[in-house]
Input
Amino acid sequence: MTHVRVAIVGAGFAGLGAAHELLRSGESSFVVLERAASVGGTWRDNTYPGVACDVPSHLYSFSFLPNPAWTNVFARGEEIHGYLRGAANGLESHLRLNTAMTALRWDDEWAVWRVSTSRGDLTADAVILAAGRLTEPRIPEVAGIETFTGDMMHTARWRHDVDLTGKRVAVVGTGASAVQVVPEVAAAAASVTVFQRSAPWIVPRPDREYTESELAEFASDPTAIERLRTAQFWEGEAMFAARAGDPAAIAAARQEALEHLHSQVTDARLRAALTPNYEIGCKRRLISSDYYPAFESGAVHLEASALERIDHGVLVAASGERYDADVVIFATGFESSEQPYAALVEGVGGVTLAEHWADGMTAFASTTVHGFPNLFIVNGPNAGLGHNSAVYMIETQLQYVVGALEHLDGVLEVSADAEREYTAELDRRAASTVWLSGCDSWYLDSRSGRLTLLWPGSAQEFRERNGVFDAAPYREVREMEPRVQREVRASVDWPLSVGW
Output
């Protein structure tokens, strides 16, 4: 059986970043398990028309791998996927594509993680879970959905075989993917109806192509990219005040969004239906300059209520209105607060990560969990942001993980008290933020109402707090025994499993 020091699960930004950080630290005994046929994670899976990032391109990149060739201020999805494919260069010997992790079990006797995959099993001293939060599309429970006679898809599983030309299309949802896909669909379809459970707050999208002179400067002067990244980072940090509950900052953010709405929608009744009834920032604030014009032009019809049921080719809204449709597109997000992989991870005493997270995801330093030794979760509990770059947060966590691995000479397990106290602190801090001001968002755990996806502070503070590993909250369990076991294991010939 194959044994490695570190197994990485996932090959998106977090997984590829982890692989690079391990190599940079001198670690070469690791594999990256990826269930798909290529790397890229979210940016591989989402290929719907109009898909793009809402964080500036140069900031939404690895700090150690700048890309002088970004074409726009905000990169399109395929360009980001290409960037990640490039980031996989040099990692080929470590990548295991088409290899799904099917079970992950902590072996107390041998002090290793036993990793079951679709292509054979292996063991690892440590595991980095880099599976991401936006992996499993969420399809709402709609009565009669099985009777629909047309084509149906989720934005994250776009069906390129379905031609929308001349079709009657219904888009369910008004989140980040919806505001991007609706104008694109409207350009092809005969009619588009958007089912809106709640209106989103939207601000202008200041996108443009980089000029030839700018691209030349990025290519010839690496400091130009760093200066731009720094400026973009602090512009993002400045937006945190509106999330933290600052009344003046919230009022300014609200005014910007309302002015954008009023400037693009002249019809008073339509404008009222597109005006959110919750505080700005409570749900994800979206950026778009062409979503409102699609409604204003008459190309898109707004149904200001949820999709309640489907009767063969007819969609029935909660308002009672009925719509004929040939295609239904679900822009309804992901199973983000209850991660599907959690049920596959079995820690000390056979307790699964899903059981440990029964009241919502928790982790010390947003990275480690009591009862799951030598396990590091990147882009997991309270590690997301609502105002800045996720890649910055990922790199911060990876600094922490590499520091932990340098201390790993046995079994590192964070104490229950440390995880509990960290969680309680974040809960206290989250209470005054706009995210807990009363709306129903994907940032919250539906069972407990806790803010489980976002860090309730600035990105800079997260790095200051969690960017350096501190062994104090950890204990090395049975330190001598694993050393002996590793010596025994090293003396055994464990050949590569079939298919590796």
About this structure: DSSP finds 15 helices and 20 strands in the chain. The longest helix spans residues 247-264. Residues 2-39+88-136+335-490 form a domain with the FAD/NAD(P)-binding domain fold (CATH 3.50.50.60).
